Amino acid sequence: MTNLSAEPTELWLSIQEEAKSEVAKEPCLASFYHSCIINHSDLKSALSYLLASKLADDVMSSLLLRELFQKAMDSDPEIITSACYDIIAVRTRDPAVVHCSTVLLYLKGFHALQAYRVAHWFWHQDRRSMALYIQSRVSSVCQVDIHPAAQIGHGVMFDHATGIVVGETCVIENDVSILQSVTLGGTGNESGDRHPKIREGVLIGAGAKILGNIEVGKGAKVGGGSVVLEDVPCHTTVVGVPARVVGASGCDKPALDMNQNWT
């Protein structure tokens, strides 16, 4: 596969070229590609437009939401930097995705994650009502529930994404892949630090439930449908209810190769 650059300007030029090529193939979508990609000068402009259009409702217009999103992105350049790494992550890990523009336009896991990044910024500006409002809209529109206080790195892929839940004190490090219907939750009504810590390179299969203030170690794999209640050692594979170690994970970062053979 051709190496893809996560540098924002280079990535944006590549996405614009993809959009222009798609317009030539499908003229009926010309206005869509122009309004979402071609008419924008950079990724920040396009992403704020797309998220605002997607999340607007009777309470918050798309115009107002876009102003808020741009304020966060202007104040914290890491939001766009992380978005670039997230786009590359999906493009390189998902064989169904052949264009970076597909990630930007269509994939709700990516949309949910970028809206979380904005909500996270508002949370730390002590504008917690706004952060929770964005979380609520994302949950309603994308069926992904990420608490704005959670800590999430870059190069993260939420594949398919429906039903993913990320709790308030959860940590997800860089280069992690999480499939649909995964819960990173607590074990009850306890307070304080109560959610999982997902370390770099981890792959979590569809429907897995990881509960409590436990650690899934670097480079580990969690099998689909597993219920994890204890720490997972680095570079191991766990499967089952409750989950148990069944072997090594087979590589340094399972999230990158997406090999879901658990044996």
UniProtKB/TrEMBL annotation:
InterPro entries from the UniProt entry: Hexapep, Hexapep_transf_CS, LbH_SAT, Ser_AcTrfase_N, Ser_AcTrfase_N_sf, Ser_O-AcTrfase, Serine_acetyltransferase, Trimer_LpxA-like_sf
CC annotations in GO: cytoplasm
Pathway(s) annotated for this protein in UniProt: Amino-acid biosynthesis; L-cysteine biosynthesis; L-cysteine from L-serine: step 1/2
Molecular function via GO: serine O-acetyltransferase activity
BP GO terms, sorted: cysteine biosynthetic process from serine
Top EC group: transferase
Annotated ranges, domain Serine acetyltransferase N-terminal: 11-115
Record keywords, A-Z: Acyltransferase, Amino-acid biosynthesis, Cysteine biosynthesis, Repeat, Transferase
EC number(s) recorded for this UniProt protein: 2.3.1.30
Domain of life the protein comes from: Bacteria
Catalytic function, reaction form: L-serine + acetyl-CoA = O-acetyl-L-serine + CoA
Protein family (similarity comment): Belongs to the transferase hexapeptide repeat family.
PANTHER family, A to Z: SERINE ACETYLTRANSFERASE
NCBIfam families per record: cysE, EPS_EpsC, PRK11132.1
Entry protein name: Serine acetyltransferase
Species in which this protein is naturally found: Neptunomonas antarctica
